[in-house]
Amino acid sequence: MDQSMREARHFEGLVDGLRAALRGPERFTLNYNAETSTFIRFNKGKVRQAGNVQQASLSLKLINEGRHADIRVTLSGEAEVDQSRLALALQQLRETLPLLPVDPYLLLSAESWQSRNVQDSPLPDTAQVLDEIRSASHGVDLVGFYASGPISYGYASSEDAFGWHQANSFNFDWSLFHSNGQAVKASYAGAQWDSQRFARRMQLAREQLAFLGRPAHVLAPGQYRAYLAPAALEEVMSMLSWGGFSAQAFASKASPLQKLYAGDARLSPLVSLDEQVSQSLSPAFSGEGYPRQDLSLVRHGMADQQLVGSRSAAEYGLQVNGALPGESPSALAMAPGTLEQADILTQLGTGLYISNLWYLNYSDQPAARMTGMTRFATFWVEDGQIIAPVNTMRFDDSVYSLLGSQLEALTVEREWLVSASTYDQRQTASNLLPGALVKTLTLTL
Q1: What is the pLDDT of residues 359-411, one digit of tens each?
Q2: For 144, which of 71, 115, 301, 370 is 20 to 30 Å away at the CA?
Q3: 295 CB-contact burial (10 Å; exposed 0-12 / middle 13-18 / buried 19+)
Q4: Domain that holds residue 291
């Protein structure tokens, strides 16, 4: 019996015990989270720390006549021990519920459904990965972090809903440092290791590293033609994801895309955005017990669907579509364009090649206007040739400009950017994004 099946059966056993322990009108939802991960840290191209983490936990919600409370339980993997821990957690919630008010926006799924999805593509052999990283980084100062392994999610409820999801993935996040302290940042993530694809990513980073030794090109504040690499565009999309596609944020007039969803503004017809659950690492069910499907968020620059969680549905009379807490996308995908990778510098002509952005925030949230800094490998390009690195600069511009009136092209090739966060546990959130060529980007200092 493989690991995923053992985990699933262990979870099913806990669910059966919980259902048998319910009293009268009590209802429950139960979420399972687990990972078995390999972590490796690199410094100067060598392994400095390696380890493995195996952990699993449950989040139990008990509901009784409109009152509800939650508790988290760490699991041991032993059936008897975990049944005992879950029984104790159930008793603690029973004692807590009478002290709480009725929740007017509690909306539980009454559906009985089954969902099982095991993405068990063979993970890359760690020894092979280490050999390829060592070979590709020969002669350069590489600092990086590699994580790999299966992540599992489970859901069950007193309404006989049951979901199980496992996704195998890896993520290698690294920087190459020049002797002058400048660095190029890159990443490679996926479900199946492709040696040639990794080699191309590393080669691009090494080529950019060579340009960092040149004297910096000094720019004055102003508007410049620019290319945003997928990693830079991801920072913009991550900011938009904080409420941009949320039904609750729109209803309370706090969405940065308020004008878009109200029909008062639009993006470029080149921009189409989907919550693409079916082709991601994310489970096809939410922690609230609602099945998730692919959603069209923006279609050819025009607003389409929004992410609707149960509380928004209850408060504003909407239909739940399985949005995660916070109503942010977890599998955002932007449609590709027609700009070939080999033609990026030629089409840019003269302007900025921006590999990364950081420290983003809103300077005018209702106008979807952001400010932030260029980061790592940002270069000045003239006549399709990289001339010199550019020191850190601050930009301030609107999404309605960057992905609207000033968007010239998107690349054919898209990069799959998987969350590198390991806070609490590894994540399955991802962005599938092209690069973006814009006619003008405003630099303020």
Answers
A1: 999 999 999 999 999 988 999 999 999 999 999 999 999 999 999 999 999 99
A2: 370
A3: buried
A4: 214-443
